[in-house]
């Protein structure tokens, strides 16, 4: 699907305010409400708009730590990778998981309340992941930039 200027503007606005009323969105992009809704539905059906979510402030919910865990696996067989990825997908404690090129096979991002909570997560979730040869955890001191909006016009 090719995105035009209006599609990009719709996406930009929705990334910043997913709860905006269609009439307000239409007004901001210069379309009628029905034309705007058709465009949003097309973007949803094409999978460009994947889903709508509420972003929570993890610190206000007591999740004060961000932890990044580098994982090296025992091997690179399809079965080893699939077993690991299935287990990661089942763990609600793991916020993000990326297959990597470089020293680590995967990098996991998780949040924890404090070091004791991380110990629990490590014991109950990370230590049970299949095919793990080595884990290296790094604790973030504080976030500097956290974005959820993908730049649509070259990053301005």
From TrEMBL:
Keywords of this entry: DNA-binding, Transcription, Transcription regulation
Species this chain originates from: Roseibium aggregatum
Residue ranges of domain HTH asnC-type in the record: 3-64
GO BP terms in the entry: regulation of DNA-templated transcription; response to amino acid
Molecular-function annotations in GO: sequence-specific DNA binding
Entries under PANTHER family matching the protein: LEUCINE-RESPONSIVE REGULATORY PROTEIN (PTHR30154), TRANSCRIPTIONAL REGULATOR AZLB (PTHR30154:SF34)
SUPFAM superfamilies: Dimeric alpha+beta barrel, Winged helix' DNA-binding domain
Pfam families referenced in this protein's UniProt entry, alphabetically: AsnC_trans_reg, HTH_24
Stored SMART domains: HTH_ASNC (SM00344)
Protein's name in the database: Lrp/AsnC family transcriptional regulator
Gene3D superfamilies per the UniProt record, alphabetical: 3.30.70.920, Winged helix-like DNA-binding domain superfamily/Winged helix DNA-binding domain
Keyword flag Transcription: yes
GO cellular component: cytosol
InterPro entries named among the record's database cross-references: ArsR-like_HTH, AsnC-type_HTH_dom, Dimeric_a/b-barrel, Tscrpt_reg_AsnC-like, Tscrpt_reg_AsnC/Lrp_C, Tscrpt_reg_HTH_AsnC-type_CS, WH-like_DNA-bd_sf, WH_DNA-bd_sf
């Amino acid at each position: 699907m090719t995105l035009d200027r209006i599609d990009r503007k719709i996406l930009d606005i929705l990334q910043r305010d997913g709860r905006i009323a269609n009439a307000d969105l239409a007004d901001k992009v210069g379309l009628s409400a029905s034309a705007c809704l058709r465009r949003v539905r097309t973007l949803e059906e094409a999978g460009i708009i994947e889903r709508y979510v509420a972003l929570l402030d993890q610190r206000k919910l007591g999740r004060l730590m961000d932890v990044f865990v580098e994982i090296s696996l025992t091997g690179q067989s399809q079965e080893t990778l699939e077993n690991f990825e299935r287990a990661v997908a089942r763990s609600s404690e793991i916020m993000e998981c990326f297959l990597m090129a470089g020293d680590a096979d995967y990098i996991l991002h998780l949040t924890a309340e404090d070091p004791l909570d991380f110990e629990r997560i490590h014991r109950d979730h990370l230590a049970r992941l299949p095919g793990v040869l080595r884990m290296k955890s790094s604790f973030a001191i504080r976030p500097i930039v956290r974005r959820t909006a993908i730049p649509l016009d070259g990053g301005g």
